[in-house]
Design goal:
Two copies of one chain form a homodimer. Chain A is mostly helical. The first copy, chain A, has two domains: about 5-80, Arc Repressor Mutant, subunit A; about 85-225, GntR ligand-binding domain-like (Four Helix Bundle (Hemerythrin (Met), subunit A)), CATH 1.20.120.530. Chain A is about 70% helix and about 5% strand. The first copy, chain A, has helices at about 15-30, 40-50, 55-65, 85-110, 110-130, 135-150, 155-175, 185-200, 200-234; strands at about 40, 70, 75-80. The first copy, chain A, has a three-stranded antiparallel sheet. In chain A, helix 4 (about 85-110) runs parallel beside helix 8 and helix 4 (about 85-110) packs antiparallel against helix 9. At the A-B interface, helix 3, helix 4 and helix 7 of A face helix 3, helix 4 and helix 7 of B. The structure holds a DNA duplex (30 and 30 nucleotides). Chains A, B: This is DNA-binding GntR family transcriptional regulator. Chains A, B: InterPro entries: GntR_C, TF_FadR/GntR_C, Tscrpt_reg_HTH_GntR, WH-like_DNA-bd_sf, WH_DNA-bd_sf. Chains A, B: GO terms for molecular function: DNA binding.
Amino acid sequence: MPDEPVASLPERKRGAGAKIVYDLLRDEILNLTLSPGSPIDEVQLGERFGMSRTPIREALVRLAEEGLVSTLPNRSTMVAQIDFLNLHTYFDALALMYRVTTRLAAQNHRPSDLTEIRALQAEYARAVQAQDALAMIAINAAFHIAIAEAGRNRYFTGLSRRLLGEGRRILRLYYDSYDDQLPMHLVDEHEELILAIADRDVEGADRLAKAHAEQIAMQVQRLLTRRGDLDIAL
Amino acid sequence: MPDEPVASLPERKRGAGAKIVYDLLRDEILNLTLSPGSPIDEVQLGERFGMSRTPIREALVRLAEEGLVSTLPNRSTMVAQIDFLNLHTYFDALALMYRVTTRLAAQNHRPSDLTEIRALQAEYARAVQAQDALAMIAINAAFHIAIAEAGRNRYFTGLSRRLLGEGRRILRLYYDSYDDQLPMHLVDEHEELILAIADRDVEGADRLAKAHAEQIAMQVQRLLTRRGDLDIAL
DNA sequence: CGCACAATTCTTGTCGACAAAAAGAATGCA
DNA sequence: TGCATTCTTTTTGTCGACAAGAATTGTGCG
């Protein structure tokens, strides 16, 4: 229960309140610090952040609109569940998003985009080497969002943000089970993606992105079926 | 200025306030009753709906998250502008969305989905025959959202909602210029889509959806270039 | 007459308080 | 003891009020 009062910022700028709460809550939800289904109490959050319920409420409304918390009318709001039953729909969407954003990036990127993407890739490799799963997942999301932004289509970048956000929760479960060795080959796949984008090789980028997505989907599916076997064995 | 006080519902259920404001404002924005760029005053809305600023604010936050209003911190919030310069990105996204949702609908639909879709199609034809552009646009959005729902992938249905929402504003501009004759062939195209879905003809549905989207994009682009020519001619 | 600075107004962000729902506890009856 | 009903408590939705920025007006000086 992470409810230490965070008395770090007794003074804050006007209008920043909701954003602070939103950012922190979002991160805690996506990192599974707040487990799915756990209830969210507004007054408790108010005490924790040292502010009134109003900005808390605004943050919760935004999280609800984003699908990260679900709120029953006149009843408690809680952290949204992960829909394991329809997980394949998630990977369908992810694969298509990877393909289209990488294609567009290969077409429309500018030099500054590449430096941004390469910087994130460096961070990513560092996180993998440091075996920091949490950082790795967050940077992975930032990496693909940067690619989406290089594609210059705000509808697809919006979709990327959404999918990669939820992806952070799903991948977290995955890496938690493999807490010994983070797979280095994902770094290489990212590297190939960058090369294809830099070469403006649209078809190659598409192919790599598709393979990348399918590989991740397969890994996660393998994990889930294995977990299913374990459950049955017990 | 549509600010008559709407004293229709002096009593309302608890928790419904924000939804009422959200639904009505969203509709007014998408129907261009509220023109892009026009400022939104919270207290004025409060008087209009007969409620405090708090539920108004919640509705505005949700609209902002959806991209329908843009809000400068500590300054006025206003109806979001339509980004005409990057209109092609919209149609790129629309085409891909049409294709994938129609494909999935052909694969995954159930009988009840088809009755729903056919009902909307009947309404659509009625609106076209009645030359009711506003209803036609709204029903068109509902029609494609129903197809997306039949595809059973909530990420794509979410994207559809978003794109078709903005589409209502763009198409409104289009039909406003052609207020003499609403094109009947769009009804036929919808009919073909339904047939392909019912036949579970995935490739056919894909092809039709792609053609449908490209046709709309071309029409709108033609309108815009023509408007551009007129502007230059003046 | 023009420009910079100060005062005022206006709008938004935040707060504390109150009331309605719902959940939970307690009581009464069979 | 079990169940239904009432009462209490908890939590949310709404309200009115206040204060901080920003925009606007007003003023004085060059």
